[in-house]
Design goal:
Elements (H helix, E strand, L loop, with lengths): L1 H18 L8 H11 L8 H9 L2 H5 L2 H16 L13 H24 L1
C-alpha cells in the first residue's frame, strides 16, 4: 500500500512540476510593453501569443497607434518567417532527448509497477 501511495505522490508531483511552464504564456499587453520599451521584441513568443496580439482589440483602444501599427507589422513578418531570412526553426536535437527521457521514464515506471505487484 505504501508503494502505491508513494507512486501516486510522485505522479502528482510530476504533474505539478510539468504544468508550471504551461502557465507562463505572455499576454498581448506584455508583448506590447516589450515592444514599446525599445522597439524590438526581446522575448521568445509562440505563434499563438503573437496571433493573440493581432486579434487584441484592447491594444487598439489604449495603446499608442504608431507603436501598435509597427508592432503588428513586425509580428506579421515574424509569422511569415521573413524577419531574419529563415522560414523554419533550426533542428537542435532537443526533441530527441526529450523523447528519450520520456521513454526511459515510462519504461522504468512500468518495470517498477510490475515488480511492486509481485
Amino acid at each position: 500500500m505504501k508503494k502505491v501511495i508513494l507512486l501516486g505522490a510522485a505522479a502528482a508531483l510530476m504533474v505539478l512540476l510539468l504544468a508550471v511552464p504551461a502557465m507562463a504564456a505572455a499576454t498581448p499587453t506584455e508583448i506590447y510593453n516589450d515592444y514599446a520599451l525599445d522597439g524590438d521584441l526581446d522575448g521568445d513568443y509562440t505563434d499563438a501569443e503573437l496571433n493573440a496580439v493581432l486579434e487584441d482589440s484592447q491594444g487598439d483602444q489604449y495603446g499608442d497607434q504608431d507603436v501598435q501599427e509597427a508592432l503588428r507589422n513586425l509580428i506579421r513578418q515574424k509569422l511569415a518567417g521573413t524577419d531574419d531570412g529563415r522560414t523554419t526553426f533550426p533542428f537542435t536535437g532537443f526533441e530527441i532527448v526529450l523523447a528519450l527521457v520520456g521513454s526511459v521514464a515510462l519504461i522504468g515506471g512500468g518495470v517498477a509497477i510490475r515488480r511492486s505487484a509481485r
